[in-house]
Amino acid sequence: xxxxxxxxxxxxxxxNSERGASMIVMKFGGTSVENHTAIxxxxxxxxxxxDERPVVVVSAMAGVTDALLAMSSAAAxxxxxxxxxxxxxxxxxxxxxxxxxxxxRSEATVRVEVQALxxxxxxxxxxxxxxxxxxxxxxxxxYPRRGRVAVESNRQCRF
Length: 159
Known about the structure:
alpha+beta, 2 domains, three-stranded mixed beta sheet, 5 helices, 59% helix
């Protein structure tokens, strides 16, 4: 049995239109993408399955979802400085991983995109703080970002 790191799964899909044609969906998140070492392991796993035409799905790094919940809650309860402090930690972590994985023009391009996504998160936190409450709409605006930042950080990796 192949050892699979915690936090990932694989799904095989077979097409009825082409006999024998299949593809594989590989989903990684949490501890399987928690740092640059883990992401390199994920890259090796994906590269080893390229002949199966993988579709790769990446969700948030370990702890990021909890951090988004905590910063949203802090902003809603009137502690915007605490929320922004948590966001700075998430930003530093993502940019450090990006720097460890990618260099040159690709890093600069992705860095701009990651910064823009995190700046948008900061804007949402400021809005939550101004409202003094965490509405379902505000929550919905935060959660798509967790995976998007991961994808932007990882897409220039080695695939």
